[in-house]
Design goal:
The complex is a heterodimer.
Chain A (H helix, E strand, L loop, with lengths): L2 H10 L8 H23 L6 H4 L3 H24 L7 H6 L2 H16 L2 H9 L3 H25 L5 H20 L8 H26 L3
Helix pairs in contact in A: 2-8, 2-9, 4-6, 4-9, 6-10, 7-10, 8-9, 8-10, 9-10
Chain B lengths: L1 H16 L3 H22 L7 H14 L10 H19 L27 H7 L3 H10 L6 H8 L3 H20 L7
Helix pairs in contact in B: 1-2, 2-3, 2-4, 3-4, 3-8, 6-8, 7-8
The chains are: A mainly alpha, B mainly alpha.
């Protein structure tokens, strides 16, 4: 088949239209949030003392970290799924969440006696954290990988990893409402590991499923 | 030169998305020529037929045209897809390549070379279900319109459009599969 012949066929198919990728991302984000919310409520639900917890800085700070990650990863995922889109500025924003956590860790180290550091870092439910963040995030990750597939990421593994971080940020936002460990020392350790698991799964998914 | 191409191609693609089929054909022809120039310059050693990569790129542009944002320039989008398909073509043949994207400014349009019968796209076409294959062949190689194709096979125009769309999507998907080209 000559290229001119191919062009005739593509032109004859011009009327077929597909939803813009930007809309697909928003729909995907909505569906992913819904799934995460359902799994969260069915599996664990919020902590019983949430009414008092929301008046404490440490509890609220967790949402700032996880939402900063989710928002920056969402913006970068969108750019990575669009060929030729510039990604450097959005990639730079990915430092926001780790930076906020780092600042909180330093503040925590100053405000808490050294004898307490270990207890706060280990916390009371790290295994629950390591279980439920990936569990809440796996459905959203599947949706984000499907959106990546619908898009055209020229670096599928990287795009998959960032989609994993996005799923991780979203899942951790829900999980934070359940978790009793509010110390930045706990968050910096166990949340990071749990989210990294989703990032690794996302990279693998990007490699295996995101072909175009 | 590139600035003029950009303005013209952006306008054509916008018109195409708004439903102007003539604009879309113009867009594809001009894009094919630019991509051909880009690919030929990048393939210095043998083993990969530039025209195969041009065709894969056009198919990818077609099935992924919903990823272009109208407020962004169209040429970086086109070349990013071409570059991805070129790297893919080398990788499938077990080679690694690094391509500098910033060299695109020096690309010039080139006409298509003589037909080669052993095109990848012909093998992909042969792999389609018979109904899709005959419709795609009719509209492309045999040059019939949608209406003429519908009359020839005694089916509705809608059925022709559906078969054409599915056939093209299947060819694009086949190009994306890892094993393709290693048979």
């Amino acid at each position: 088949m000559r290229t001119d012949d191919l062009i005739k066929a593509l032109d004859a198919d011009a009327r077929s239209t597909a939803m813009p990728l930007g809309s697909a991302w928003w729909i995907g984000a909505g569906a992913a949030t819904l799934i995460a919310a359902v799994v969260f409520w069915l599996a664990i639900g919020p902590r019983t003392d949430i009414a008092t917890a929301i008046h404490t800085m440490r509890f609220l700070a967790k949402f700032v970290f996880t939402m900063a990650l989710a928002v920056s990863a969402f913006a970068l995922s969108r750019a990575l799924s669009t060929p030729g889109a510039s990604t450097s500025r959005r990639a730079a924003w990915m430092i926001a969440a780790p930076l906020l956590v780092a600042v909180a860790v330093v503040l925590e180290l100053f405000s808490v006696p050294a004898a307490d550091w270990g207890r706060r870092l280990v916390g009371s439910n790290m295994l629950i954290c390591l279980t439920f963040i990936p569990l809440i995030g796996i459905g959203p990750l599947a949706i984000f990988l499907a959106v990546l597939r619908y898009g055209a990421p020229t670096r599928p593994v990287l795009a998959g990893a960032v989609a994993g971080l996005l799923a991780g940020g979203l899942a951790a936002t829900f999980y934070a409402a359940h978790c009793f460990d509010d110390s930045p020392l706990f968050v910096a350790t166990w949340y990071t590991i749990a989210i990294a698991i989703l990032g690794a799964l996302g990279a693998l998914g990007g490699r295996l499923f995101v072909r175009w | 030169m590139t600035g003029k191409d950009e303005a013209e191609l952006s306008r054509l693609m916008q018109a195409a998305i708004a439903g102007d089929e003539k604009a879309y054909a113009d867009f594809l022809r001009r894009t094919a020529a630019l991509v051909r120039g880009f690919i030929r310059r990048k393939i210095v050693q043998g083993g990969v037929d530039p025209e195969d990569v041009v065709q894969e790129t056009l198919l990818a542009i077609h099935v992924k045209r919903h990823t272009w944002r109208q407020d962004l320039p169209v040429l970086p989008w086109v070349y990013a897809i071409a570059r991805f398909k070129l790297i893919d073509a080398f990788r499938r043949r077990g080679r690694r390549v690094e391509i500098e994207i910033d060299e695109i400014a020096e690309t010039f349009a080139e006409p298509e070379a003589e037909t080669v019968s052993g095109r990848d796209i012909n093998r992909a076409l042969d792999g389609l279900p018979p109904a899709q294959r005959s419709v795609v062949s009719s509209v492309s190689v045999e040059g019939r319109s949608i209406g003429e194709t519908a009359a020839k096979f005694g089916i509705s125009e809608t059925a022709v459009r559906v078969s054409l769309h599915r056939g093209l999507a299947a060819i694009a998907k086949r190009f994306a599969a890892k094993q393709f080209g290693r048979e």
